[in-house]
UniProtKB/TrEMBL annotation:
Gene3D superfamilies to which the protein is assigned, alphabetical: DD-peptidase/beta-lactamase superfamily (3.40.710.10)
Protein name: Beta-lactamase family protein
Source species of the chain: Brachybacterium halotolerans
Beta-lactamase-related domain sequence ranges: 42-282
InterPro entries, A to Z: Beta-lactam-related, Beta-lactam/transpept-like, Diverse_Enzym_Activities
Amino acid sequence: MGERARVWEPGAVDDLLAPFSFPCALGVAGTGGTLLTAGDGARVHPLASVSKPIAALGALIAVDRSLLDLEAPVGLEETRGALAGGADAEVPEGATIRHLLAHTAGFAFDTGALLAAPGSRRIYSNTGFEVLGRALEQATGTDLETWLEDEVCGPLGLRDLEASGSPAASFRASVQDLLLIGREMLAPTLVDPALWREATSVQFPGLPGVLPGYGRQKHNDWGLGLEIRDGKSPHWTGERSGPASFGHFGQSGSFLLLDPDRGLALAFLGDEPFGPSHVEHWPGLIDAVLARHDAGEPGA
């Protein structure tokens, strides 16, 4: 048995969940399959903002099929349709689908207020993803839940994903489903690899912004629906994750992290909303998993 196999034996990382005082689950996968789960990997949890990269994947599938254009302007109809009391909503002049995905359209976090010109600031926005969801529905002629069920859940064999409600924060899933999504993001089959490279590259580089839970970042880099690690500090992914790592975390205490250099996907779900325990222990958890992976490489 090689060193890699010993590292990923069942129970090999159960100790890593010990700092968390609530029920939680961790999963790790490579491009070839699941390497381990600790905790109940089949239990369904709220994803909160980890909904966004799944919605983004659905949007990119539509882009790949020429149903949606990244450079298409954000329209008044989808903006008003996405917002409560949207009759008075304003469209950010010059904003595109790309801006929505990269959190640079100028929308406030959870209202229709416009805080900046498109492309000038990185303002993390649930509103932007609500508008994106409406734009995707209009482009495909299909409601968002059905589109994701047909184009993501079916092809990837997801059993637990519930893609109803807000594309910004309402989905639910299990760790085992997040790992399947993570494997797709490491080696895409649903979109052209060139488009996926674009999605995981920095969009509108050099923009400052606030990373929720971790404060203001001089370079708050994002791709298309995905946060890019780059040189952010402090950061939830610890010290070992490379600058090309990408993913998302959510206020439900959830994360999906992809490390393309190592070919690893990590997923975490738990019973407690994001708080001081996550800020304190997620970096160490991720560093420890990556360290054990790295130690196993000679025997792979």
